[in-house]
Amino acid sequence: MRPDSSELASEPFRETGCYRDTVAYLQYLDVERRLSPNTSQSYRHDLDALLRFFFEADVLARDAGAETIRQAVIQIRKRGLSAASVARHLSSWRGFYTFAIHRLGYPNNPCAGFKGPKLRRKLPSTLTPDACAQLLDSRAAPDVIEEDAILARDRAMFELLYSAGLRLSELTGLNLLDVDLKAGEARVTGKGSKTRIVPIGKCAVRAIEAWLPWRDSLNRKQEKALFLSRNGDRLGQRSVQKRLDQWADKSRLGQPVHPHLLRHAFATHLLQSSGDLRAVQELLGHANISTTQVYTHLDWQHLAKVYDQAHPRARRVKSPGTKVQEGE
Length: 328
Hints:
Layout: H1 17-31, H2 37-57, H3 66-78, H4 83-103, H5 129-137, H6 142-147, H7 149-164, H8 168-172, E1 179-180, E2 185-189, E3 195-199, H9 202-218, H10 237-251, H11 259-274, H12 277-284, H13 289-292, H14 300-310
Antiparallel strand pairs: 1-2, 2-3
Helix pairs in contact: 1-2, 2-4, 7-9, 7-11
């Protein structure tokens, strides 16, 4: 159940017009745009910071100008927020003013044209195909899987994360009827409540098939979820994170593994093999292809090798004094 927007802003300015206008915007995000609870909570947090500044500066939201926003940015920067967090705050504020102009009669958007801090986009870390195999196969012997329902469940979850490139929220949101094992596909609800169909590989299908009898024995509450806890409840995101951390530790990978890392591995390995950026975008559920393009930069050595092998006039650049053989 979604939290009530009216209970999330700070108490001192609860009765101000600024507060009521931002609540109207938050309700618009929840009801009309149907943003995920996590995204809505981020907007609430960011707008709460702006309301706090307006209250302390004795400024009305509709009267704010570019200088007011600049001072608000300075204030949140003093809190030690990263450049990415400051940029997110600005984006939330800009969205509120766009709404306020169209729905509430505000005269202008003081955030329009306001440039936030320049961001350096970090490349996501990933796992090699061999590391993924080590992770998924090391605790997957049939005799082990059959004697422990939780191991069977975990294997099915982690195979599915890697096979379909799911977000953690998409995995825990899956219901039994969302998965068609005969067709090898699943219906996934992603960000913004958008649904997409994703293929499921053979290894994931077999793992889910091994889990389903255990699921039936645990499902004493007629729960619709595909993945259940020992008590028969829908498995939560934090539980999945903990189980994957334990699984990775016992697999002796030598590095921490989180659910999103398997999504990164899915995207990277698929893009390396196919080179089809648009297909990877669709499978990941990215609204903008620029989000998917980050995976084109993950493995330069792989791309350089492909270039050397495929381009008719490609040659490795050698250090001075080193002879380059034709076709090398």
